[in-house]
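seq:
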Amino acid sequence: MEYSTPPRSDPGVVETTRRHRWPLALLPLAVALQIGAAASPALVERLYSQGVYRLVRAAFAATLGRVPFSVGETLLWGVIALAVAGVARGAARLVRARGRRWVVLVAQLRALWLVAGALYLTFLLVWGLNYRRRPYAELAGLDTRPATVGELTAVCERLVAEANEARDGLPEGPDGVLRLADGRSGALDRAREGYHEAGRSQPALAGPSAPGKPVLVSSMLSYLGISGIYCPFTGEPNVNMTLPDPDVPFAASHELAHAHGFAREDEANYLAYLACTVHPDADFRYSGRLGASIYALNALARVDRAAYARLDAQRSAGVRRDIEALRQWSEHYRGPAERASRAVNNAYLKSQGEREGVRSYGRMVDLLIAEERARR
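struct:
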């Protein structure tokens, strides 16, 4: 009988196994990075938002920003197609595996874990860490302490009067609603000019970004109740092209706020208003004040219905027609898809540290009041 020594482990095989194992750490690493960033907003602001992310934003603007269509939207459909194909292929493998189904299932879960880790870590590094930066109120030195009803009312009075004044003389369509002279696409091209002006006095808003881009499947976004979406993986602000003209400049400016590194929705709304008010074009100046007045009066309606009714009655006829156009757009697309989208968005915002979820959209009013205090 012949005896042979037990086979030794192949160093190459061991090394390959180790190489295959390390990507499993990507998801825990991403979670740890997010937790660590939450503990030090000042460090995130200095090293990431004002450092690394400025380079990322400039690179996106200089490359994908020059492409006339949304690369992010194109990639999204490609990813969806790959995901569907992957699910179908995985299901087929499970059916064929029979006695090895558990092994196949574990392998598929492992692959899913790797993809999730790679995507989440990339998301944080190219944009997501901005959720953990210092609040804009701190950067701008704004006082956001709790406000009185009187302060809120004063802001509403100013915004209603300014929106009425800004609306005078703007072009209208046959229905009497504001018409953008160069169309929705033209407004997207002009949106960056507001940030160029705002950046002169607010360094945090300075620097390049990709322009707003039209969404090809805008109707789908409308049924989901979404006016725009920022793609962090390509640095592109995407805007819903079914929106009524009065809302397009404000919506485009909101998505550009995300491109400038302000991830929180309440801050993006306020910065959209700020960029619009200093924009060289009158339609942007009006759209920003219209959007801000709607948010502010909605907040006032929850605490003082009489004051809300009084100020709402002071809106000019043109402003009323524009608001009615916005209401009709919302009613036309409202349904189960919009409610489901809202629930998903709520969960996403909370996962990124916005504890109030979609309610944070209304918190821009705190910044409007803080701005009013700074004027005194």
